[in-house]
Structure formats: structure tokens, C-alpha cells
Amino acid sequence: LVGKDFLPRGTGIVTRCPLILQLVNTQSREASEGPEEWGCFLHEPDKKYTDFSEINTEIQRRTDEIIGTNKGITHESIRLEIFSPHVLNLTLVDTPGITKVPVGDQPDDIENLIYQLILTFISNPNAIILAVSAANTDLATSESLKIARIVDPEGNRTLAVVTKLDLMDAGTDAMEMLTGRVIPVKLGIIGVVNRSQLDIQNKKSIKDALQSEALFFQRRYPGLSSRNGTSHLSRNLNKLLMHHIRSCLPDLKTRISIMISQYQQMLNTLGQPVTDKSQILLQVITKFASTYCAVVEGTSPDIQISELCGGARICYIFHEIYGRTLKSVGPLDGLSTTDILTALRNATGPRPSLFVPEIAFELLVKRQIQRLEDPSLRCVELVYEEMQRIIQYCGQQLQELHRFTKLHDRIVDVVTQLLRRRLTPTNTMVEQLVAIELAYINTNHPDFVRSTTVLSDLVQNESRGERLRQQHAMSTSSSISAVESKSSPPTEKKAPKEVALLPTVAAQQEAAAGGGFFGMFGGRSREQPLSSATPVLAQVVPSPRAEQPDANELRSQFAATGPRLSTSVDSTSLESLPKDGLSPRQRLECNLMEKLIKSYFTLVRKTIQDSVPKAVMHFLVNHVRDCLQSELVGTLYKAEHFDDLLSESEQLAQRRQEAAKMLEALQRASHIISEVRDTHFA
User: Fold this and answer.
1) Highest-confidence range of 40-44, 68-72, 412-416, 545-549, by mean pLDDT?
2) Residue 95 and residue 114: Cα distance in Å, rounded?
3) Which of 217, 459, 500, 668 is the one with CA 20 to 30 A from 602?
4) Of 99, 113, 106, 59, which Cα lies nearest the Cα of 82?
């Protein structure tokens, strides 16, 4: 087909790796000084071989370099281009011959390996299969035709080639084989006569061999001489290739268009070589800052649908995560009844209290308000982490940052440092918001519940409960007295026990009005007599005319009116509540304090929940958004940093060069396909 002797030949297996041979016709090219025919290898693209014996030597050397010298087989191919005005535009693949028995370094499954190697090339639907068989063997046992039918059962792209016609036994011929009577092949069967080993040793030229082949067919097969021979095989292959290309044009056109689009996109990603570094750097900085701000504001064109990001996630942090966390902080969490009673008693000092001390309320409510600081600082931390995630997101969106890795790293460092600098004042501001609430407990706030209202409700509830308890006790006592009077006559009359009653609602309101904000429980004006101000104490003391109860009765009365004194006193808290529960006064004090703490804590929690997001937006988010571009320009836009920031790796430059060459080849192929289509379908 080439007209030159350059392929290795010999006994045994000679072709041990695929040889991809591309024939290029040079008649249409402009005449220029230099050799008429030459070849070049893909692994040595800059070297031209004008001596075809050197091509033979290089093929053998390259084969030994790839697979060794001991008959091994490999899938790695050798690519060779032959430029000549005497060849047709064809691409041929010479594969190793099928071996049944392994020799040398060949593995035990050498037959299967060669099968798989051949199938990788002939499985391509755009390839034409040349099934080469010897004429002195039965064509029905041809391994090449068997493999061809595996991938081409219809025979639409299989052409049979019969060799060694000159070596058939005397008295036999290949007439039935060449005419397709033995095994029909859709594309036909072509016979060829190659040089023998003796001809090669005698250095018989290809031109003389072609003449001898033509004489052989004219003498032995005169009726088939025009349809056989190497020259006819070459023309027929070119014709089949053109028809096959024409049938595959639509698919080829589509595939080439897709590949052109892919490589064009790759070139756009890799970018053009940098000429004006200052302009490129400023464009990248501006684009990054604009993308960052767009993600924060929610105006980015590349909106994600799989998860929240940017400003939407910050909003979710404020109103969902932070809001739910604050609501989960209860006004009385971690505050027990014992803690409230201890605070009330510690606030009165050594003197018994006539009213609930205000300092106890401030102490307890400040303790609860302080618990709002940790969730608020955690909210700042979550927003800071989201701002960091936006940096990585923008870095992935901008193709220029994939190209200039050092610039990407420096931009990440600058923005991260800016966020860190703003984190401290933001945390300080949030801490100050909580400290402001702790600095002044505004009990005169219009939304804060009044103590008189709370007290009135509590006293009414307590009075109703006390009356019910008294009625129950009197009914029980009457029943017991009736039973005792029937069983034994009375011997001695004792003075009835006085019942300690709480003041009426009107008296409590009057006392509260005369005792200030927290005046209650016997609080009185200076003009009020002591006897009217302390009705509970007056009724608890027994009448002097009544007989004195015995010791057991005194102990029971003392147990009913207050807690016992223990032999040891804990220095930090009350040891325990009375065995029969809280006294009416203690219960009223605790209920009042709890309601006041709930009211004020809820008020402060609403204020903190509204103020913290505003502080975070002002001190962190908005500040970074407004100062980002100026910070990047001021830090990075310096002439001495241009070369370092915009430096590219050698691999990137090589990829750009290869992509440009591939794009050019694809565009040329698309142009050729268009010409072929216009030529054949016009």
C-alpha cells in the first residue's frame, strides 16, 4: 500500500504491539524544497525519517523499549505517519497475529490477551476490518473472520484478504474462494501475492513485486486479475473508506461539534496567555468581590437548589437557629424554690423582712439574663463560619482562580483576615448588649407586669385556697368533737386556739400602696398603729386568760408556724424545706418572685433577640461586604506582586497548548466533513 519496505518481518511473532499507520497524500500540497516522501513518529514528532530502513529500525527499537526483547505483548501502540504523493489517505492498524501457544515472556492466556487487543480496535463502528487469511488453509477455519463476525455479524464493514496464493498445492486454485462461493463476504474477497522470504533476502523492490503480482493474476486468474492485487486493494479500501465516511457523516459531524464545544470551553477555562497583568488582576479582584456580595445579598445568578447558602443561610441562622435557641432558655431554668428563698433571706440581712427586698429580684433576674450571652455569641460564630463558606463557594465559581492558584490563596487569606478582625468587635458588641441589660433593671418598663397586679392575683388565689382549707378543717374538727362528746363527758374547758389568718385583699393592697414598689406582707404607713398592721402576729399569740398548753402542744404549734432550728446551719443555702411544705408567706413570696422574673426575663429576651442580629449585620456582614473590594485592592494590587500572583504552572500552559492544537484539528475535520458532504450530496 505504501510502496516502501519498512515493516519488520521474520519468523515467529514479529508485531508485538499495535502499529497505527497513517498515510497522508501530499499531491495537493504546495511544492517545496525537501524530500518527496518521509515518515515521522508520534514519540519523536520533530524528527523526519527519509530513509525507510531507519523507520524499520526505529519500529524494532521502540518495540523492544516498550515490551522488551523476549516476545512479550502490549496494548501500547506505536504511531507512524507516512507522507507521500503515491499513497491514498488511509489509516491502518497492524495488530499482532493470533498466537495459540505462549513462548518467551508471553503469559499462559496469550491467546485471550491478543483477542482482547484486536477487539479494542475492530469494535469501533467507524473502522473497516481487513480479515487476512492464507489461501493454503481452509477459509472456514479462519480466525480473523471468526473475530470479525463477533463485532460485525452483518458483514457491513468486513473485507476479506487472501494471501499466499502462489504457495497453493499444484493442481489447486482459489477460484471458488475468491468468488465468495466458500464463504460469502459482503464487501468482497481480494487476493494478494506478497514477496517471499527469498525475495526479501534478494532485496527485491516493491515495484518489481507489484509487477510480478500483476503477471501472476493474469496468468493464473485472468478473469479476476482486475479485481485482485495490492493496487486494487488500495483503491478499494479508499473507496470503502469514503462510502463508510459518507454513511457516518451525520454522527461524525455531531461528535466533532460536541468535541469542539468541549475543547472551546476548556480553552475558555484555561484562559488566554496574560498580556496586561494589572488589568487581569483588577478584573479578578472586582469579579470576586461582586460575586461575594451577590451571594450575601441573594442576587447571584447561580442560585443553588440543594441547600441554603449565603444570605439565605444567615437569615436562617438569625430567625430559626438563634430564635429557637433563645426560646428554649426558660426564665426559671436552673432556679429552684430553695434558690429563691435563699436569695430573699440573704437580702434581708440579720433583720426579719416586712416586705420582699428588691435587691433579691435584681440578683435573680440578672443571673437569668446572663444565660442569654452564650447563645448570642454562638450566633455570631455561626454567621462567621457561613461568611467563610462563601469564600470557598466564590473560589469554586470563578474559573480565573483555578488558573491562578497563588492569587486564589492570597484572596482567601485577605478575606479571612478581614473577617477575623471584624469578629472581635462583633463579639464585644454582643457582650455589651447583654451587659447593658444587666446594668439597669428597668422595673418601670411599660411592658413589665406591675407587682400590685401580681400581688392582687396571688392574694385572691391564696385567700380562696385558705378559706377552703379552713372550711375543711372546721368540718373535720366538728365531726371529731361530736364523737368525743358522746364517748366521754367534758371535764375541763380549755381556751380555743386562735387561727392565724392572712390579711384581706383590701388590707394587702393598702399595705402595698404604703410600702413602695415591693412593699407588702405587713408593710404599713408610719401613722398606722402596730396592732392593725400585724393582724397575723396578734392572732397567733394565745389569750392570757387561756390555759397554757403542754410541751407537746407547743412543739406542734411551732411546727405549724415555721421551720425548726437545726443544730447545724449550712453557710450557703437552706438545709431543707419544712416537712409539711412552704408556709403561706413563703409560697406567696416565691410565686410573686417567679412571676416577676418571668415577666422581666421575657421582655429582655425579646430585646436581645432583636438586637443581636442587627449588631451582627452591622459590625460583621455589612462591614465586610462594603470594605471587601477596597481591602483586596489595597493589599494585592501592587506592581511587585503581579508576577507572583498571576504565575501559571507549566502543566497548565502545556494543557492550553494541547487544547488549542486539538481544537484546530477538530475545526479542520469539521471543514473537511462539510466538503465531503457537499461533494457527495450536491
Assistant:
1) 412-416
2) 9
3) 459
4) 59
Q: Which residues does 218 contact at the CB level (< 8 Å), separation at least 6?
A: 225
Identify any residues that bridge with 189 across adjacent strands, giving them in sequence order: 160
Please state whether 522 falls in left (phi above 0), alpha (psi between -120 and 50) or beta: left
In terms of pLDDT, which residue wins out, 248 or 56? 56
Instruction: Show the cell assigned to 169.
Output: 498445492
CB atoms < 10 A from the CB of 188, how many?
A: 17
Cβ atoms within 10 Å, residue 519: 20
- Residue 87 contacts by C-beta under 8 Å, 6 or more apart in sequence? 1, 2, 3, 23, 24, 25
**DSSP string computed for 446-503:** TTSPPHHHHHHHHHHHHHHHHHHHHHHHHHHHHHHHHHHHHHS------PPPPP--PP
Q: Does residue 576 carry a pLDDT above 80?
A: no
Neighbours of 424 (CB within 10 A): 10
Average pLDDT score, the chain? 76
Nearest partner of 577 among 261, 372, 337, judged by Cα? 337
Q: What is the pLDDT of residue 463?
A: 59
Report whether 161 contacts 190 (CB < 8 A). yes
Residue 139 or residue 518, greater confidence: 139
The H or E element containing residue 133 is: strand 129-134
Of 508 and 163, more confident: 163
Whole-number Cα distances in Å, 228 to 124, 170, 205: 27, 21, 20
Cell of residue 30, nine digits: 504546495
Phi, psi of 157 (to 5 degrees): -135, 30
Query: What pLDDT, on the 0 to 100 scale, is given for residue 500?
Result: 36
Q: Taken in order 88, 92, 98, 102, is the CA torsion positive or negative? A: positive
Flag the least confident range among 28-42, 92-106, 353-367, 567-581.
567-581
CB 267 within 8 A of CB 652: no
The C-alpha cell at 278 is: 494589572
Q: Give strand pairing partners of 92.
A: 21
Strands 189-191 and 158-163, by their bridges, are parallel
What cell was used for 249?
457523516
Q: Is the pTM of this model over 0.70?
A: no
**How close are the terminal C-alpha atoms of the chain, in Å?**
31
Is a pLDDT exceeding 90 seen at residue 420? yes
For the record, the C-alpha cell of 11 comes out as 519468523
